[in-house]
Design brief:
Layout (H helix, E strand, L loop, with lengths): L5 E4 L5 H10 L15 E2 L23 E2 L3 E2 L16 E4 L5 E5 L5 H8 L6 E13 L6 E12 L12 E6 L2 E6 L5 E13 L1
Parallel strand pairs: 1-10, 6-8
Antiparallel strand pairs: 2-5, 3-4, 5-6, 7-8, 7-11, 9-11, 10-11
Keywords: Signal
Length: 196
C-alpha cells in the first residue's frame, strides 16, 4: 500500500486539459463569470468541511447519495452521464466568490460500470478540482468535488462490505499556476480493494 500525496506542478500547456476536466466535473473557465447576486445560491448539504473547499472534502458521500437527503436535484436531464446539482455559491467580505458543486454519476451509469467488476473487487475514487480566477470585481473560486464507490458482485454501493482490503492507494495532486492570483489544482485519490 502506498501512502502520501504525489504533487505535480504543471506548466501552462496543461491548462487546456485541466479546463476540459473542470468543465466535465461541472466547473471551468466558462463558469468563471460573475456569480449570481445574493449571499447563497443553492443549499450546502450538511457535514461539509469549510477548510476542505480547495481539496477533497471527506464529507462528500459516495455516489451522490447524501444522508437524510438522497440525491441532490440535478440541473441536467436524467439521461446525462454526469448529474450536476445546483452549485452552492457564497460571497465573503474580501470579495471572493466561492462556487462549490457536487457532481455524481446517475444510477443507470453507475450500475452499468459495476456490472463489469469482478465479484471480489471494489474501486473507490474521490476527486476535487479547484480553479481560482482573479477578476476585476473580486476573486472567483470554483470547486467541484465528487466521490464514487464501485463494488463488484451486486453488493451495497454506499459502503465497502466487510472482508475487503485495500491494495492500492496513491493520491495525486496536480497544480497549474495561473497569471495573477489564480491557480488550478486537481486532487485525485483512487483506491482498489480486493476480498480476502
Amino acid at each position: 500500500m502506498r501512502r502520501g500525496i504525489r504533487r505535480l506542478v504543471l506548466g501552462a500547456g496543461a491548462v487546456a486539459a485541466g479546463s476540459f476536466a473542470a468543465a466535465l466535473l461541472g466547473g471551468g473557465p466558462a463558469s468563471a463569470a460573475p456569480a449570481p447576486s445574493g449571499p447563497v445560491v443553492g443549499t450546502a448539504p450538511p457535514g461539509l468541511l469549510a477548510d476542505a473547499a480547495h481539496g477533497i472534502d471527506p464529507a462528500v458521500p459516495r455516489n451522490g447519495v447524501w444522508p437524510r437527503i438522497g440525491y441532490l436535484p440535478s440541473l441536467v436531464p436524467p439521461d446525462s452521464p454526469l448529474q450536476i446539482p445546483t452549485p452552492v455559491v457564497t460571497h465573503d467580505r474580501a470579495g471572493t466568490t466561492d462556487v462549490r458543486v457536487f457532481p455524481y454519476l446517475p444510477p443507470w451509469l453507475h450500475n452499468g460500470i459495476v456490472s463489469r467488476f469482478p465479484p471480489d473487487t471494489a474501486f473507490e475514487i474521490a476527486g476535487a478540482i479547484h480553479l481560482a480566477v482573479p477578476g476585476t470585481s473580486g476573486r472567483v473560486e470554483i470547486n467541484p468535488n465528487g466521490h464514487c464507490l464501485f463494488v463488484g458482485g451486486g453488493r451495497s454501493q454506499q459502503y465497502l462490505p466487510r472482508g475487503f482490503r485495500r491494495t492500492v492507494e496513491s493520491p495525486v495532486r496536480a497544480e497549474v499556476p495561473l497569471p495573477g492570483d489564480g491557480g488550478f489544482t486537481v486532487t485525485i485519490d483512487p483506491r482498489v480493494f480486493r476480498r480476502g
